[in-house]
Design brief:
By secondary structure, this protein is mostly helical. Helices cover about 40% and strands about 10% of the residues. The protein has 15 helices and 15 strands. Strands 6-7-8 form a 3-stranded antiparallel β-sheet. The longest helix is centred in the N-terminal third of the chain and has 20 residues. The relative contact order is 0.15.
Length: about 425
């Protein structure tokens, strides 16, 4: 990883103690107005695309909004719903909806998941019909997507800390999850999920990726905790690009999603691992931007203010692409949530990029819910859709940059504080007063 001195040498400011913005960088009035509009548009997606009878948030929708077609557009994802529950808290805090309106949406979702949704050992299907809650696509009972759902629920529990009903519903859902069962008789590593027809999926969460939230929820579970040694059990592959070394294992989103809720600032692993995951995600973003710029010979539209490839739609369908190292299929497409999801890490790089994209491409890519999921700047391809989790990571990342609210709410969960301590992710002495 880049040292603090190395960040400064690259022009990437270190984080100011006790703040949510890097030292030497402060969001100016024009930038904050842009972020306000970006966030409000993303919030509208979750508000308009959540079903009033279940609280489920659609997996995707038309970027222009409006009445949705039947079929696939009525499919919800539980991960998008976790982002959505968090979005409702942000919306209430920002005054986009009343606190009571947000509460009603959240209670609807919590009641659905506690009393009506299909579950096994407390785990939920990845995709559901937004109106009926029926399983879609023969999807699995998903461990990671259930984790993102619970991340939103615990955020709401802490935001509405005086609300006995929300607290009881959220606790009931979290405490029902049998984390030990998802080990599938193993000692430490959680599995990706379970399908009733075939049993456990073959893949385990055995390498660094977006699973950090899942492991912390499991280690801190008040009813079914897994061993703290599970945190050390997965591998941490290191990769070096352009002189920068960091832990990675996939597209840029893996460095973003858990950070939407978990405040890793100032925390470094002990027990010989010594990774600071917040700094690691800064490095991952800096590296990814450099990686895109280095492809300008093949894709001349990439630049210091036009970059970003992460799992998204493409002209050929959904692709989990990115790099470095480069995955197959990269064709010059730009995915706005790559920069948007890293606003909380490198705002000095990400805000100018998002502002440039909005100004340069205008109404082609800037719709009712903000940026379309992806577009190609040269060949004319523009996605008609937005995707809930991609809008969600931009909204939560931006809110953490602007206020630290999501971090503060979620980190008020005593289960997470216990898990961080058990996993050996303690605050460094220099950060204890700032982030403790």
């Amino acid at each position: 990883m880049i040292s603090r001195r190395g960040f400064l040498a690259l022009g990437i400011p270190a984080l100011r103690a006790g703040s949510f913005q890097p030292a030497g960088f402060r969001v100016d009035k024009k930038q904050d107005q842009f972020l306000e509009e970006l966030c409000h548009r993303a919030f509208l997606y979750f508000w308009e695309q959540s079903d009033p009878s279940t609280g489920l948030v659609r997996d995707r929708a038309l970027a222009a909004g409006g009445v949705q077609a039947k079929g696939i557009r009525n499919v919800s994802s539980i991960a998008a719903t976790g982002f959505g529950i968090t979005a409702f808290c942000i919306g209430a805090e920002r005054g986009w909806v009343s606190r009571q309106q947000a509460r009603e949406r959240i209670v609807t979702a919590l009641k659905f998941f506690l009393y009506s949704a299909n579950q096994t050992h407390g785990w939920f299907y990845h995709f559901l019909d937004a109106s009926t809650g029926e399983r879609q696509f023969r999807s699995e009972f998903s461990s990671i997507d259930t984790a993102f759902l619970v991340g939103g629920m615990l955020t709401a529990r802490q935001y509405f800390s005086e609300d006995d009903e929300i607290r009881g519903l959220a606790n009931g859902i979290y405490q029902r999850i049998d984390f030990i069962w998802m080990l599938n008789s193993g000692r430490y590593l959680l599995f990706h999920g379970y399908q009733p027809e075939t049993g456990f999926l073959t893949a385990k969460w055995d390498q660094y990726c977006e699973h950090c939230l899942l492991y912390l929820l499991a280690i801190g579970s008040p009813s079914s905790p897994i061993p703290p040694a599970s945190w050390q059990a997965w591998t941490r592959p290191k990769y070096t690009y352009s002189g920068m070394t960091y832990v990675t294992g996939g597209p840029l989103f893996i460095h973003q999603f858990s950070h939407a809720w978990v405040d890793f600032r100032g925390r470094r692993e002990n027990r010989g691992l010594h990774v600071n995951y917040f700094e690691n995600s800064i490095t991952a973003t800096v590296v990814h931007r450099k990686f895109c710029m280095d492809m300008r010979r093949s894709f001349p539209d990439y630049s210091p203010v036009a970059w970003g490839i992460t799992a998204s739609d493409s002209a050929k369908g959904y692709i989990a692409w990115g790099g470095p190292p480069a995955t197959e299929g990269i064709d010059g497409t730009i995915v706005p949530c790559a920069a948007g999801g890293s606003l909380m890490f490198t705002p000095d790089l990400c805000i100018p990029t998002l502002q440039y994209l909005q100004k340069e491409f205008g109404d082609r890519i800037w719709k009712r819910y903000g940026f379309v999921d992806a577009f190609h700047p040269r060949n004319g391809w523009t996605d008609a859709d937005v995707i809930g989790i991609d809008l969600g990571i931009m909204l939560l990342s931006a809110e953490n940059l602007r206020s630290g609210n999501v971090w503060r709410w979620f980190m008020g969960s005593p289960e997470i504080q216990i898990a961080l301590d058990l996993a050996g992710l303690r605050l460094e002495s220099s950060a204890r007063d700032s982030f403790g």
